[in-house]
């Protein structure tokens, strides 16, 4: 396996200890502890893959840099999603203006100065307000409707936002309002300001002075000031702090300062613009995402998308055209994400983006593909059109969590998203033409062909066919845009040269893509999916906090542990039974359905019924996994609650014998389960997590409902 593209300023947190990258090769990586005695630790790529799925491991891009430390001092949370809603909305609103200005600058229609921006400011305001109205209107487009819009910025303010956004590497956190930092500040005297600015300008020098060196010069400069002021009986001036010097340097033009320090060639290489029409170099440097209505009439099957329809819709829509949302890596032309749905939606786009960051080899192997589907990772730049699915705030929040810059080029101009548009053309000509039920691109080409009557593929068949085509055909064929190289070979070659894209760790995945629920703390921790989840922080909160409600996040593809928020910090809490480790929500639903169907006939759950349920689950696991990752939308919190009420039925997975260590999850439901009513909540409640029951069967319950400890 090839090394990951870690950087020197990236921060790795393993078992609570902080490390920085020392070296990497094809066998693994070597990290060095930040704190003394600076312990060196090697991690193989096999161990790294396991750690990425564990809460023990955190990866923070450029986490050891001064910029990240400054954001921490500013009181901002780690994840954009954790900001208050008002600040999120303001930051997204600012981003619309900044991206619109950058669009003009990149097209050569404006420069980064006030007179130039003033000339185009009305057009920018009009474009932004039109985008906001389009998002707010929905289906209501009647004239005269009252709309609430924020006051637009002036040219100077817009340039300030743009500078902060660019200096942060297109990180939306730079646009979060910092009103808590407002207050009286000492303004520099005219002569003091001129001398300080001249001193800061010395940073852009071929001698490459450090920030600490500039700060020492500033202290000496103010010492000279104060000697002269003492002779004139004037009060002393307070020298600037290191953070003030740092902020002043950060306000310098990054390209110009880097050019002066390192030369023209180095500056051009570092600040190569990743924009429309420019050739990208690295895997996941630019990802294009779009939706396409498949040119095939498809049968809706019970195993796939039928669960999204009402009974009336299912009877009326036996045959339909489905929408596929696809993401392609521009450097290698590899398809890195795919979701099939009934219609366009922001949830389909977010689910596709989730797939972009994962290794999809297990899906390919389950469909008997001969090649793997490991291509993917954290994208740097995402290009999408102006469709409703790609301008939603939910998608923008997900992109902000990934630290990926989202751009929405104007619609109707195919060259702005040429790779994804060409891919859909390949799908239409080389994939769809192999199946009956083709709709063709227009009525003239279709003629008298009855596509509805000729439909032969179910939605599950279409999923399997698409994945097989992408993994074993498209990725393995010579590509004209790659000078005859196959996308799979191009990916391997560029990964050898630049390294694998940086990963998304398990805690970040729950923060960016996880479903959020509210649950009540009890002596067992919190209960979700019939299982008790606990950690030391939850136990402490139960003892010492008056507030019982906590927020939690979980990954629908792994219910083995959840993230719980306590006093603004997120902690991992493990399933005490060990039964849910590596189990998806869809597999849990299938098993709970088995238990529910059986207990309509019998009150007891025997070992025979348990094994029968597991056998059924094994048969459903492949279909469930494929549908979960490719064909179904991410469930909302409300849908999860309904599923628990419908399928939970008092299902309670018994804790493992020992809770000192996180459960291994070596077998499905190794601790067994119980079925009962909520009447036993107070009198017959199981002991707290730190003192689990030794065995036995809890008292039987009188009624069927999901017991939530509320």
From TrEMBL:
Residue stretches spanning the membrane: none
Lineage: Bacteria, Pseudomonadati, Pseudomonadota, Alphaproteobacteria, Rhodobacterales
Comp. bias regions, Pro residues: 686-696
Superkingdom in the source lineage: Bacteria
Region called Disordered, residue ranges: 660-710
Comp. bias regions, Low complexity: 676-685
Domain spans labelled Integrase catalytic: 279-495
Protein name according to UniProt: DDE-type integrase/transposase/recombinase
